């Protein structure tokens, strides 16, 4: 169940990151409320995951998935470019997440 909580937390992290861009410096009410709720949801589900997972593993996987999701959706929603350097970084993040999961014995 911890990994499911972690995936939910990562989804909230992506919404938080993308929502922060839409707030325009927290001057727009609805995007600001959505962003605050996503931040709270992400931290809540991360805390549930960390009941079982080591904090180093859980936090790193959470931020890794959040980073990849933010870059991919940023490209789709905001027309940001995905460069070769970004693709290499994705590979490094995914490799790190896989190794952490293996090291955690799960």
From TrEMBL:
The chain crosses the membrane at residues 33-50, 57-78, 84-104. Keywords: Cell membrane, Membrane, Transmembrane, Transmembrane helix, Transport. Pfam families: Multi_Drug_Res. GO terms for molecular function: transmembrane transporter activity. It is a multi-pass membrane protein. Its main location: membrane. It is found in: Cell membrane. Gene3D superfamilies: 1.10.3730.20. The keyword Transmembrane applies. The keyword Glycoprotein does not apply. GO terms for cellular component: plasma membrane. Belongs to the drug/metabolite transporter (DMT) superfamily. Small multidrug resistance (SMR) (TC 2.A.7.1) family. This is Quaternary ammonium compound-resistance protein SugE. It comes from Nonomuraea wenchangensis.
């Amino acid at each position: 169940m911890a990994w499911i909580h972690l995936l939910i937390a990562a989804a909230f992290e992506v919404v938080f990151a993308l929502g922060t861009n839409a707030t325009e410096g927290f001057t727009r009410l609805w995007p600001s409320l959505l962003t605050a709720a996503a931040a709270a949801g992400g931290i809540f589900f991360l805390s549930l995951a960390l009941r079982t997972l080591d904090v180093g593993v859980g936090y790193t996987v959470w931020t890794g998935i959040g980073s990849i999701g933010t870059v991919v959706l940023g490209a789709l929603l905001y027309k940001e470019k995905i460069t070769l350097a970004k693709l290499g970084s994705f590979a490094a993040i995914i490799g790190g997440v896989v190794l952490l999961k293996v090291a955690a014995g799960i």
